[in-house]
Amino acid sequence: MSANEINESVKRLVTKYKNDIDIEYFKDEVLHFIKYVQEENVCNPVEMYRLLVDGLQSTFPNVETILRIFLTMPVCNASGERSFSLLKRVKNYLRSSLNQEHLSNLSLKVIENEVAQSLDYEFVINEFAKLKARKVLL
Q1: Domain boundaries, the chain
Q2: What's the rounded Cα separation, in Å, for the pair 56 and 45?
Q3: In terms of Cα–Cα distance, which of 67, 74, 65, 23 is closest to 42?
């Protein structure tokens, strides 16, 4: 990356994340960090972040913040890809006998597994029990 490209990238980052980083020192931090990373032969953003966390956070605090933001940004199509790969697990001999609504609900449960595991089942059961029976007496 040339010096002009680095300057333009730094300007865009400063404009976008001016509340998250110290604008005054960010450009110098980036330039020093690039040299340091090149000397260490680190190319992967995750490895760069690990390098920072292992003792360089105080030296490059703004670079650490930007890398953390970058590494936690969701990829726009990841949820769709994830749901398709999880749907493969749902495919089994029962799938052909399921109606579309039941298959959709089952797929949603598999996709949102982390949320389902964090539920307090006693609370859900009690809330469901409070709804009372809806059967009509004949």
Answers
A1: 3-72, 78-130
A2: 15
A3: 67
Cα-flanking dihedrals φ and ψ of residue 76, to 5°?
-60, -30
Block residue for tokens 């040339």: 2
What one-letter code names the amino acid at 131?
L
Three-state DSSP string of 36-103: HHHHHCCCCHHHHHHHHHCCCCCCCHHHHHHHHHHHHCCCCCHHHHHHHHHHHHHCCCCHHHCCHHHH
- Per-residue pLDDT tens digits for 90-127: 555 455 666 777 767 777 777 777 777 777 778 877 77
Q: Is the pTM higher than 0.70?
A: no
CA angle 31, 19, 77 (to 5 degrees): 80
Q: Where are the alpha helices (DSSP H) in 91-120?
A: 100-111, 113-117
- Residue showing tokens 């949603």: 108
